[in-house]
From TrEMBL:
The chain crosses the membrane at residues 12-34, 137-159, 180-210, 340-360, 372-397, 409-430, 437-457, 472-495. Keywords: Membrane, Transmembrane, Transmembrane helix. The keyword Ligase does not apply. Pfam families: PepSY_TM. InterPro entries: PepSY-ass_TM. It comes from Acinetobacter kookii. This is Uncharacterized iron-regulated membrane protein.
Amino acid sequence: MQFRQVQAILHSWFGIVVLWSVFLIFFTGSIAYFRTEINLWSKPENFLYLKAPPSSLESAQVAYDYLNTHAPDAKRWRVNLATSRMPFNTLEWQDQTSKYHKLQDPNTGLILTEGRESLGGDFFFKLHYSLYPLPDVVGRMLVVIVGVLFLIALITGIFTHKKIIKDFFVFRSFKGQRTLLDLHHITGVVTLPFYLIMAFTGVMIFFYLLMPMGIHQQYGENGIKKFYSEIQYSNVPKPAEDSGIQLKEFSIFSRQLPQQGSNGAVLEKFEVKNPNTAEALITFDYGYNKLITFNNPQFIFAANTGKNLSSERNLHPVAQISSATYGIHLGYYASQWMRWMLASLGLIGCIMLVAGALLWQRKRIKQHNKLSYTVVSYLNYFTFLGLPLATAMYFLANRILLASLEHRVQYELFIFFMSWIGILVIPMLVKMQKAIVLAFILTAFILWMTVFSPIFLSPQAFIFNTLRHQQWSVAGVDLVFIFIATGYIFACYYFRKIKMREVAK
């Protein structure tokens, strides 16, 4: 058997084994690029407070003063400052018994009402890397195994397609199996660098799950936190033990902070460890703007003296590679347009996966009475049409469930997973071709309902009102829903047209 034949077999079987899992990971990852906007969209009660935030230092002053007054004895404060994407301060603190998470208007210092309980876009981020709600270790291990197998499928795919560049410029429409192969080639070439980078960096991030013995031997059984602390800093600064315990006024720190860091980075967040104790440290982190690594500008002070403490970043090549791995994969450096580009590449790659799965199925159409063919066709339907429908239902649930409903997050997740599983009922009742058409129409209808249901339930979240008030972040989410719903209608028309041509032949 020749080398290319071996690669083709590996590509086909490794690809089909992980294909549905990879689709889930990349579909949710593409959505997660906009999880901040979705988080904002999912809390319509806060739309009344949407306005341009003040400077980052002014926002930090407001958050610092609130926490020093209302959580002076907490173990830790963490504050993500208001930005154009999320125009509210996000305050987190922890005391001896509980953890707290609040949104604050940076212009007035007002703590916003809890509003409706929802995971928003964070759900897709968690589903992407840990298959939430599975236990973290189990979900991450499954994701990293899928990532390794997907890397093998990608590399063998390069060797399999010896005319990969030539085939990129060929697309034969309405040619059945040939069309699927051309579509698989074109989308594969477009997304190959992106998928190789994302798959590799994703596996590297969870390297400690694949190869845990090195860290265990060097740092102990639970040494992963110590490892990451060492890889960030050459030395960890410590305040003087003989200093007082009272926190200094914020102006003591702000006078020593620049308005902008290197590469135009601005203050993005700050953290206070052990506030109002002799060990209190306050750390100011500047944004990842244009920085792929996490070696962003950082300033650390003894919080009870105001003294600027020297902290040395670990600039060893291994540490830099580790930092860049996270930065590339998470895309924190990306501008708005770059996030659109990355999300688009992720979705184009999903089309590659769909074309590959349908091509695998098409090649075996003569075996359609066999159990394996039936299982693959149902898995294709469940994944490629069920996941988008369940996602649409998740967004609709955010709008139609009562804001005061207890355990609301659990209800949203229940609707998501039950909608996903429930879609399998359709092909059991009607033929697969009609089931596909119904899935297209149903998903489009749910998305339209999501956009227009606020007319009666929460008028401030209705798209005409958000557009009128120039609330572009939240209006943009609804506009994307309208665009996708329209695309589904065209996809339904295109699918019916293909089937009519096949019948005519």
